[in-house]
Automatic annotation (TrEMBL):
SUPFAM superfamilies: Rhodanese/Cell cycle control phosphatase. Pfam families: Rhodanese. Residues 12-99 form the Rhodanese domain. This is Rhodanese-like domain-containing protein. PROSITE patterns: RHODANESE_3.
């Protein structure tokens, strides 16, 4: 697991799985396009929804929760990274977001 930048996310190939681990109420500000919403507290129960053969990038508000989720997913056999600065950083850079 490593902490990656917004540029890394933008450069990632189309097979990457972006997992937004924020709580539902936090999604009002928007999400990264094509991200899947799995709240951090549900990751163990819902990890089967993810494809182990594809890279995972976990995203939260600032990077703390997503780092913990990426570590858990790595232990489960996923190739998982975390977005440093989270959606706060993504939004501050003016990068595109979609409403869920």
């Amino acid at each position: 697991m490593q902490e990656i930048t917004t540029a890394d996310v933008l450069a990632a190939d189309a097979t990457v799985q972006i997992v937004d681990v924020r709580e539902s109420a936090e999604l009002a500000t928007g999400m990264i396009a094509n991200a899947v919403h799995i709240p951090s507290g549900s990751i163990l129960d819902r990890s089967g929804e993810l494809d182990k053969s594809r890279r995972v990038i976990a995203v939260c508000h600032a990077g703390g929760r997503s780092a913990r989720v990426a570590a858990i997913l790595t232990e489960l056999g996923f190739n998982a990274d975390t977005l440093g600065g989270g959606m706060s950083g993504w939004e501050s850079e003016g990068l595109p977001m979609v409403q869920q």
